[in-house]
Amino acid sequence: MNPNHGGQPYDPAAQPPPSPAPGRSAPVDGPGPPPGAVAAPPQYRPDEAFAPGGGLKWWAISRRHTWQRTLRAVLWAVPVGALGVFLLGRDGGLAPAAMWVSAVFLAAVVVGIVAELDRRSFGYAERADDLIVTHGVFVKRLIVVPYGRMQFVDVTAGLLERWMGIATVRMHTAAAATDATVPGLPAADAALLRDRLAHKGEERSMGL
What we know:
Layout: H1 64-90, H2 94-121, E1 123-126, E2 130-135, E3 141-146, E4 150-156, H3 159-164, E5 166-173, E6 180-186, H4 187-207
Antiparallel strand pairs: 1-2, 2-3, 4-5, 5-6
Helix pairs in contact: 1-2
């Protein structure tokens, strides 16, 4: 049946190809991706096992986190050292008391060194659909927390943290093993992170 109603017969080979709509490019010749094809996952090098991906950079925590942990260790070391000196010195053992004080002082120094190494290993990044946190001195760990699984966010700060102007942000999920904690943030940054996480969590919950 001729659709031209009496005109010339329709020949597709003799007709010019349709021009693309203004503002749109012509389709590229060649086989396209099959229907239902899934995009290839990003490729990481072996040394990027703990990389945030997508060209993102890790956000570091404040140096005051190291001083807070060191000062807390010193505050514990003072009464422990004094009690040891009292008990050992009561029996006239000056040398054991001196060794005890040295051991307590060394323990406080080690805590400070480990706290600094832990701070340097800590990082977090906010991606489009999840928050990732990495930390660990002896055992490296990376936690991925989807915003849609977040139940609530809380901000905590002890006496020393408040005195130093830092706080800890915790992101709670249904499984305690997937909770994420970002300590040692300046108080203003902690408040901004809390608001962003709450907003993204509400958006993902409304989309379910």
